[in-house]
Design a protein that fits this description.
Elements (H helix, E strand, L loop, with lengths): L5 H12 L9 E2 L8 E6 L2 E6 L6 E4 L2 E4 L2 E9 L16 H4 L1 E3 L3 E5 L20 H4 L9 H15 L3 E5 L10 H14 L5 E4 L7 H9 L3 E3 L7 H7 L8 H15 L4 E7 L5 H14 L1 E7 L7 H4 L8 H17 L11 H4 L5 H13 L1
Helix pairs in contact: 1-11, 1-13, 4-5, 5-6, 9-11, 11-13
Length: about 375
């Protein structure tokens, strides 16, 4: 196996260790995950990076330093968007309705509460209701509010895609029906803005077509782990949804949205065997589903951090999994950049794209 390229290893390492940075004008605290991030451009490419005062990485003169030595990577903080300065007629700040992710992605959680947020059911890496408790957002975003903010974000800040996720409801749709209403309103207001939706597998698979008909062009159905024991331990409520339901939802989503317009998060560091995680990712790719691989990163306000004391996985393990999955994606001709919108299209929270070249080298050696 050849050594990984510096860009691939560095991108993985800072996803784990973060960067010492006094301020990032665009950042997020708590929420649905994956970490307390600052949004930066690394050599012009968007990256969501933990802000860690103890990291060996720092920034000076627009350069990324490791223990004081220049890594050769340029760093630029994403500027605060202009739409954050606006307020709705009823007094809600636009940034409480939707936030900038990376430098061109508008993101929102349309319902900031989750039926699974009781401690006995909560995903241990999730803090979806903590941002609500802090006043950083509002509980339910209306379709009209989201259409208003999306139009402003496109016109003022050049936003090129939008991500809409939701907390899970107790209904059979698990929150997807309101999501569809919001998508329809934004699509009517800004027809050329690609939208990704994210939700649990709805019990009624017909809702997936409803989301597409409303105007969504890609979808994330996030499982986080393919190992049932890990799912029960880390997400006892969500983990009660059988894997068969996820597979049925992925298959229907691929049928409706198309090959490589469906994605799912896979998290490194939850205890799943790395080789089994890689094998599972390869099965997803064969289905036409993009496995968006990210490391677990401790997030303030979560049970994993506040109760379990969980830590991020080793960088070497994360790199190995990321590089192997990147190789499988390349072999299949599947790129996140080819998705209409969403996490894979943005890529800021993962090192998959930057690890792809190294993955090809490793596979060939």
């Amino acid at each position: 196996m050849t050594a990984p390229t510096p860009s691939g290893r560095t991108r993985v390492d800072i996803a784990i260790q973060g960067i010492r940075l006094l301020d990032a004008p665009v950042s997020r605290r708590a929420g649905a995950g994956p970490s307390d991030d600052g949004h930066l451009l690394l050599d012009g490419v968007g990256a969501a990076v933990p802000l860690n005062p103890r990291s060996p990485y720092s920034v000076r003169g627009g350069r990324l330093l490791l223990d004081g030595a220049d890594t050769g990577v340029g760093v630029e903080a994403v500027a605060r968007p202009r739409f954050y300065d606006l307020t709705t007629a009823d007094g809600v700040r636009y940034e409480q309705i939707a936030r900038l992710h990376s430098d061109r992605v508008l993101a929102t959680t349309v319902v900031q509460t989750c039926a699974r947020y009781d401690e006995s059911e909560r995903c241990r890496f999730c803090a979806i209701e903590e941002s609500l408790a802090s006043g950083a957002t509002i509980a339910v975003k209306t379709p009209a509010q989201l259409a208003e903010v999306a139009r402003a974000a496109v016109e003022l800040d050049g936003v090129t895609q939008m991500v809409m996720t939701t907390g899970t409801s107790r209904g059979r749709d698990r929150g997807a029906v309101h999501l569809a209403r919001c998508v329809r309103a934004v699509h009517e207001a800004v027809p050329d803005l690609p939208i990704q939706v994210q939700c649990e597998p709805p019990a009624d698979l017909g809702v997936i077509a409803e989301l597409h008909e409303a105007g969504a062009r890609s979808i994330g159905i996030h499982v986080e782990s393919l190992d049932d024991e890990v799912r029960r331990r880390w997400m006892p409520g969500k983990g009660s949804v059988p894997m068969a339901e996820y597979r049925a939802a992925w298959a229907e989503a691929v049928r409706v949205f198309g090959w490589n317009q469906v994605s799912t998060y896979l998290m490194v560091g939850l205890g799943e065997d790395p080789d089994e995680l890689i094998a599972g990712a390869e099965e997803l790719i064969a289905m036409g589903v993009y496995p968006f691989v990210v490391p677990f990163r401790p997030l303030a306000g979560t049970l994993a951090t506040e109760v379990d004391g969980a830590t991020a996985p080793p960088a070497e393990t994360t790199y190995r999994v990321t590089a192997r999955v990147a190789a499988a994606l390349r072999a299949a001709g599947m790129s996140g950049a080819d998705q209409a919108a969403g996490c894979a299209a943005c890529g800021a929270c993962s090192a998959l794209e930057s690890s792809g070249a190294a993955a090809c080298q490793e596979t060939a050696s």
